[in-house]
Give the backbone structure.
Amino acid sequence: MTPALTRFPARVLCLALLPLLGLAGCASLAPKLEAPQLKVVGVTLVKGDLLQQRFKARMRVTNPNDRVIAVRSISYTLEIGGEELGRGLAGSAFEIPALGEAEFDMDVTADLAGTVLRLLDRARGKGLPDALRYRIRGEVKLARGFARTIPFDETGSLSLR
């Protein structure tokens, strides 16, 4: 084989890998955003019956990052004692200032009666616990930037006594 032919595949391989190396470099330059913290600051019942309730929850979100986060939407699921209590969605865009807070309204659909009945059924014979574990998980969808979603997953407990 001639030297020109043996060098040709190596050149083609290098040219083919060059865009992949560029993409890997760009991905490493994308900022690593920490998940924002959510807190409920108010809840009002919009509509409800025994099977389903609709709430408007006023939420406060804290941005632990050193850059503004432009939010397109936030969705989440709330679990109490391992049972899904409800789901929420904030579809209006807003911005969270760098190292700051913002408030927004979130529509929440819940099944309080069903969740309470399942929890009571589980507690039968054992008595009610002193506290119930909760979990709120979901994602923040960003309006711009390389990272398009920021997942979050927080747990805690609610005292029953």
About this structure: The beta strands are 37-48, 53-62, 69-80, 83-90, 94-96, 101-110, 131-142, 149-159. The helical segments are 3-29, 112-123.
